[in-house]
Write a structure and sequence with these properties.
By secondary structure, this protein is mostly helical. The radius of gyration is 30 Å and the shape is elongated. It has 24 helices and five strands. Strands 3-4-5 form a three-stranded parallel sheet.
Length: 548
């Protein structure tokens, strides 16, 4: 008997269950230290467990409801950095940074819940395809900026110095209170040695962050029983439902939720593209947004750190055999088992160890390949990338992306317009066939043949307008739009003005070669000087100018 196909779960199948279970287990092993590290980085001391909560909830629900079958979701660098920024914003309005105050966490989870709901709305409104249209220079600068932020924020914990806040505040604290904890520094150095120097052959089977976690934690307990910052007490039991605080500081929470939603969407859909390339599958971007939104909304109700599609965990899952949503859900189940049974063991993990793991993550996030060669490819592209990077680090995450997209799109429009203007030619007849050339020669200097090529945007209007002064020098204006598949409104208005200018000076106007779409657009503007092909228009012009 055939097994039923669960239509509600995109890509669900039992055919790869063995590979899915192995991929989920491997992804869980990688996710454990990262979830703890991101939780600590986002929420400060005591926050590690909430990173694990987030990995369990978002990993399961995003796989169940999402649109990328083999994707593994969980806390990521951009999301943890954003949560840390939310805490900084709340601290500025008088909210204590301490999780034990029972004031901070419900507000943060309020922002997480709002972010999830916004993501669901983005998916319902089918905005997924627009997220992937962000220029690569902007994505590269943004992700590299996130990597730099992670590096800066982990310098303090690596040295055993308590530092909170943004990049400038955190670094300022480190430099003003530069009294490194020798034990923490040694643990951090050992962690860096493990994560960087573990042979690839070994890390394929056992991820280097897990090796560091398993080896260095007991070693630190043996050598440094006291005097080194550790994760500390982890709540007993599993996940607990808790209502977020949406009443207080709602404008702050709404903005933070919007940032989380947009960054989570970008992070997830970029990972979806990676998953497609590796698994030779095709994701559904809008469904993925809805799945991520549901996952983050529920995470906000259970004190979980918000998540997104995690590139490294997704790649490891696929390479280990994961092919369907079962792998992502299995990854969460394995983490839940660890949560229920290994909580007391995690309490002894040094913060410097997590900082060392995150420093490796931060360095991996930085787009070194593009960063080091962008200036050789294009100075403008390099400036956009570096600008977004610096704005991400020192200003605002969303602001950096928006400004970067605005500038990058302006540069793109400029490039397209330049190409369009270069294609506009009123003299070159090299593309005419023999008969057309003969007709063109018959017309002599009385005919202005003005060829337009390519899709014409509003940028092309400038070139069309600049050529209006030439019209009065000729008796007939032949506007050739044979190679124009699309006309923008602004370009059409420019053509309209050109036709009006020609008629004002009692010149005849012919428009040739318009396809059905272009013809319809011209007729919307009551431009009816349309003929058939370019050859027919040339024959008509020659007959008008030389009846014999």
């Amino acid at each position: 008997m055939a097994r039923p196909n669960l239509a509600l779960v995109h890509g669900f199948s039992w055919r790869h269950w063995k590979g899915d279970l192995l991929g989920g287990l491997t992804a869980a092993v990688v996710a454990l230290p990262l979830a703890l590290a991101f939780g600590n980085a986002a929420l400060g001391p005591g926050g590690a467990i909430y990173g694990l909560y987030g990995a369990i909830i978002t990993g399961f629900l995003a796989a169940l409801f999402g649109g990328t079958p083999a994707q593994v979701s969980g806390p990521t660098g951009p999301m943890s950095v954003t949560v840390a920024g939310v805490i900084g914003t709340l601290a500025a309005v008088g909210i204590s940074r301490e999780l034990g105050s029972n004031e901070l966490l419900p507000l943060v989870m309020g922002a997480v819940l709002i972010g999830g709901l916004i993501q669901i709305l983005m998916g319902v409104l089918r905005l997924g395809r627009y997220i992937t249209l962000v220029p690569y220079s902007v994505v590269s600068g943004f992700m590299s900026g996130i990597g730099v932020i992670i590096l800066c924020l982990q310098i303090g914990p690596l040295l055993g110095i308590k530092s909170q806040g943004g990049v400038i505040t955190s670094l300022g604290t480190v430099f003003s209170q530069f009294t490194p904890n020798t034990a923490a520094l040694l643990v951090g150095a050992l962690t860096l040695a493990v994560v960087f120097l573990t042979p690839k052959r070994l890390s394929t089977w056992v991820p280097s962050p897990l090796i560091a976690l398993v080896v260095i934690t007991p070693l630190s307990m043996l050598l440094f029983q006291d005097g080194i910052p550790r994760i500390g007490t982890i709540p007993e039991g599993g996940l607990n439902f808790s209502l977020p605080n949406l009443k207080n500081h709602f404008p702050v929470l709404l903005r933070a939720g919007l940032v989380l939603a947009v960054l989570g969407a970008i992070d997830s859909l970029l990972t979806s593209l990676v998953a497609d390339n590796i698994s030779q599958s095709r994701h559904h971007s809008n469904r993925e947004l809805i799945g991520q939104g549901i996952a983050n909304s529920v995470a906000g109700l259970f004190n979980g750190l918000p998540g997104a599609g995690a590139t490294m965990r997704t790649v490891i899952n696929i390479k280990s055999g994961g092919r369907t949503p079962i792998s992502g859900m299995a990854h969460s189940v394995f983490l839940l088992v660890l949560l229920l049974g290994a909580g007391p063991l995690a309490e002894s993990i040094p913060e410097a160890l997590l900082a060392g793991i995150l420093i490796k993550v931060g360095l991996d996030i930085i787009d070194w390949g593009f960063l080091l060669r962008a200036h050789r490819l294009s100075i403008k592209t390099a400036l956009v990338m570096w600008g977004v990077l610096l704005m991400t680090v020192f200003w605002d995450l969303i602001g950096a992306v928006l400004v970067g997209m605005f500038i990058a799109n302006l540069l793109t429009i400029e490039s397209i317009t330049t190409h369009q203007l270069e294609s506009m030619n009123s003299e070159d007849s090299s593309q005419l066939d023999q008969e057309e050339q003969h007709l063109f020669d018959r017309c002599g200097d009385a005919l202005m043949l003005f060829r337009l090529q390519g899709p014409l945007s509003f940028g092309a209007a400038k070139g069309i307008s600049e050529r209006m002064t030439q019209i009065r020098q000729y008796k007939i204006l032949l506007l050739d739009v044979t190679d124009v598949p699309h006309l923008g409104i602004t370009a059409t208005l420019a053509i309209e003005r050109m036709v009006e200018e020609a008629e004002h000076h009692e010149r005849q106007v012919l428009i040739a070669g318009a396809n059905a779409k272009v013809k319809a657009r011209l007729e919307q503007f009551r431009i009816h000087q349309l003929t058939g092909s370019r050859r027919e228009a040339l024959a008509h012009a020659a007959q008008e100018l030389d009846p014999n």
